[in-house]
Design a protein that fits this description.
two-stranded antiparallel ribbon; 3 helices; 2 strands; mitochondrion; MZM1/LYRM7; mainly alpha; about 55% helix
């Protein structure tokens, strides 16, 4: 896959992730859209393949961070937030064991 195709794919992936992560939050959706577009425009004239690969890696890391670490919160009272985790963030709770057993 060419670098231009990788950049375009990353751009689209970041916007899709933004729409999932900040669903129903117009202010956050708009801020993320502006930031993504700003970052891509500021590096539009980059020609060094090494630098482009580095920027693609940073963008991929940001997408992963957004997808796996961001939880929406909704103000319900003056000092209260209601957390709205996405289904893909909810994982099975593995019970803690004080006395681990050795594998055979």
């Amino acid at each position: 896959m060419s670098q231009a195709a990788k950049v375009l794919q990353l751009f689209k992936t970041l916007h899709r992730t933004r729409q999932q992560v900040f669903k129903n939050d117009t202010r956050a959706l708009e801020a993320a859209r502006i930031k993504i577009n700003e970052e891509f425009k500021s590096n539009k004239s980059e020609t060094s393949p090494k630098k482009i690969e580095e920027l693609i890696k940073i963008g991929s890391d940001v997408e992963l961070l957004l997808r796996t670490s961001v939880i929406q919160g909704i103000h319900t009272d003056h000092n209260t937030l209601k957390l709205v985790p996405r289904k893909e963030l909810l994982i099975e709770n593995v019970p803690y064991c004080d006395a681990p057993t050795q594998k055979q």
